[in-house]
Task: structure prediction
Amino acid sequence: MDDKNLMQDILLLEKGACDLYMHGTIESPSTEINHAFKTALNNSLMMQDEIYQKMTAKGWYQTEQAEQNKIDTLRQKFENSSAQG
Result:
């Protein structure tokens, strides 16, 4: 396994941890548990961002630049659906 594959696996695991912490935050039965999950979620999100930044710097994680007209179309769609609801 090369470094790129290892980093991709780590990023996927970190994204999974973020998902679990988010659901824990939403479902937490008390303020103390909610705070613990929020703290863990924020730490996990920061770690995910660090991994993403390192992968981007090495050219291992590339994102596509969205076209402005597609952004505008989606924005309009969601603004219209919000106005109807």
